[in-house]
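Entry for the shared binder. Reason: the reviewer on the internal report wants the predicted structure included alongside the sequence.
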Amino acid sequence: MSENKIKCTFSAVRHERKPEPKLVQMDLKPTDITIEDLADALCNGASFRPAVLYGRKASDWKQQQLFGLDFDHNATIEEKYNKALSLGLTPCFLYTTFSHNENEHKFRMIFCNDSVINDGDYRDKLQATLMGIIGDVDVVCKNRDRLFYGGKGKMVLYPAYDSRINAETVIEKYWDSEYEQYIPTSKQKSKSKLSSSKRDKGDTDNEEHNLNENLHVKAIKEHDVEYLRKTLAHEPIEFETKNEFWDYIYSELDIAELIDIDDPRSFCCILHDDHNPSANIFTTQNGILKYRCCSENLTLNIKQLVEMLGDFKSEYKAIQFIMEIYNLSIKESQWSIEQRENIDMMISNITLNKFKELCPQADKNIKYAKDTFLMMLSIARNNIYSEKFSNNDGEIVFFVTTKKLAECLGKSYSQSKIDKIGKYIKMLVYHDLIRILDDEQVPKGLLYKAIKYSGTDKRNGRHVNFYAIPSWVIQQLNTIEDNGIRWKDKGYRIGGVSFDMFYRAEGFDVAASLYPQYKKQKNENGKVVNRTTTQASDERTMKISEVILNCIQKKGYCTEKEVIGILGKQYTYKVTELQLKRSLNEILDLYGLKKVKANKSLKEQFSIKSEGYPNIIIEDFK
């Protein structure tokens, strides 16, 4: 019933395991929902913020009626539920988290106030009171933007959906000054205490200056991890990959909170002696938070800001500092270490030209695709998940869009450049330097993650491609070189790369292995069948064959330039040239022809008058 609905910030997507913050952030939105439906969703992996936020940060808080408490250690479900009842407070429901087990209870307790609270300070006081009187609550529950993940328990605990608390009664009866530690803004008071303790140690002449000093900035300058970890009170997060870690720190960490700025739109720059506000914090179109000082013409991301403020001489130490103050970590295993080492060896072999010794023909073929290959190796390296995200051969599985790859290479400004990179990828796949995977070869968790990240084309159901990187053991190097020789023998050219080209030259299986999402199509009866060449492509191929055979019949040879010149007006020169690149191998095999470079003897034999030694198509007398 609509009158029993409350408003919160909710994501209805149900997860089997604790999701990445970025995936949840994409789905969160202010929602009217019944408490019963919310409880059921959370028990089955959905996520929510008790508060209504029109944004992602605590400063975007608008209102709140639900209040949540998080228990991770030193508490049992029954003990804390009974404690609440003994205080005259009945929660609406409880639920277990993803990491709950019988030996260590991890759970959430949800209360509903009898009215909506629109005053942020009043909200903070009620939250702090609940945390203080129940006890053993995770301290980060105090934050206005607190995000609660669901769990996998499937069952709502102690449901009492109509139960309500009264904020005024709770605060009046139970508030204690010691609960101020649970109020987000109380860090201002802790600053004064910390400042006083430091002043007691010396430099009393600067007492007035110290009172006004930004202690967050001071802590960064002094590399004071303990102080920042305590004041920021960030919930521990373990990332599956480095890529997820970078996405999170650049897009999710609040720079204003880190440097303790109340109004991120305008403030005095913390990097120089600034008496007129010249700095601000903004979000780029890609969702990255940046610090900008207009007077110094300086724009920095959070890592760069920490490096400058802390005068870090090592990028590694600056990153470790950020990880420590925010309780962040990246999952590491023997398998991931091994995979990273494999990729590092590949990158070294490519950059030091050792690949040329290992696979000389393949190296020559991919000369212009090496930058694309190195970038894909780099992306794979930063996307090494745990072993559950590998294929059956234990190889790294990752996904990336061609457009994203082009952006990384600085070539996303042109669609033709993006298309060329797409063709380079097919060349690398053909050589088996990388492998493109069919959906059934992709771990289900990763498949969902990619579709969630990049979406699916509603017109054809296709999504971002998945790739694997095989290790360069001796057998694999032999395969790569054999494929390189076959590429050369087939006369493949990057301009003709397409399903059509590989289908005509080597058949359906090869073409399907390179284009797994394009291997099926519906026929005129709506039945799903193997993809073949199109009727228009077949007609152009037949015309090209006729022109080549007619020329050979008349003078013994034919050039590609002649074919394009004859058919260019009918199909346009560009289309004719492209079709010729795609179909020539099939035509040569079908009619017993070959393409060779004209030497002096052949020029005399066929009375070729042109300068130089052109490539010509002639009969193959074997």
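Summary line for the report: The CA atoms of residues 5 and 457 lie 35 Å apart.
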